[in-house]
Every structure is written in structure tokens, then in C-alpha cells.
Amino acid sequence: MIIVTADSIPGKNIITTIGHVKGSSARARHAVADVFASLKNIVGGEVSEYSRLLQQTRDQAIERMVKDAESKGANAIIAFRIQSSTIAQGASEVVAYGTGVFIED
């Protein structure tokens, strides 16, 4: 599946625009990560536990977006965007979305 942030794919012809495709994932921190994060606040540096959690959440949201696109008959996604938000204390949601299209191979 080709995924681009642009409104077209260089060298490819869009045959059909399928429409909006999306995927989301929500995850919460856990107590052990919070302890390590608190220590990092004292000494400084990257909170790798949170970085890993957010990367896994992004990956899952994108995977779900691709499955949504495939289920609708798309073989590529244009105008791809990703957004995150806090939905509760200690919990974040990541939404991946774009426009599903069918391109000529």
C-alpha cells in the first residue's frame, strides 16, 4: 500500500477516489512507566518508555487505516495525516487518516 502526504502520487494515475479512510488506537500509560518518567523529570532526558508507547500506538493506527482502505477497495492512500490527543489523564489516542484511492499499477 502506497501512503503519501501529497494529493497525488508522482508517476501514478488515480483511477478512482474511494474516500475517507481512517484508523485509531488509544493507549494508557502504566505505573512502571510513570515511575521511570518521574525519575527522568529529575535528571532530564528522553522518556523512552513513552516514546515506545506512542510509536506502537502510531503503528497500530496506521495499520488499522490501511485495513480500512483495503476493505473499501483502495490500493493507495493520499493526503495522509496523523494526529494525537490526550483523551484522559495518562491516556492518548492517535488517529491516522487520509483519502483512499485506487491507482493504476
Primary descriptors:
single chain; 105 residues; alpha+beta; Translation Initiation Factor IF3; 4-stranded mixed β-sheet; 4 strands; elongated
Give the arrangement of secondary structure elements.
Elements: E1 2-3, E2 14-28, H1 31-43, H2 48-71, E3 76-88, E4 91-103
Parallel strand pairs: 1-3
Antiparallel strand pairs: 2-4, 3-4
Quick recap of the structure?
The chain is 35% helix and 41% strand. It has 105 residues and is of the alpha+beta class. The chain has a four-stranded mixed beta sheet.
| Count of helical regions | 2
Approximately how much helix is present in the residues?
25-40%
Lateral strand order in the biggest sheet: 1-3-4-2
SS-derived structural category: alpha+beta
Rounded to an integer in angstroms, the radius of gyration calculated over CA atoms is 17 Å
For the report, how would you describe the main beta sheet?
4 strands, mixed
Mean pLDDT: 87
Which band does the percent of strand residues land in? 35-45%
Number of strands: 4
- How would you sum up the global shape? elongated
Tell me what the CATH architecture is: 2-Layer Sandwich
CATH first level: Alpha Beta
What does this structure look like?
The model has no long low-confidence stretch (mean pLDDT 87). Helix content is 35%, strand content 41%. It is an alpha+beta fold and 105 residues long. The chain has one domain (2-103): Hypothetical protein apc22750. Chain B (Translation Initiation Factor IF3). The termini are close together.
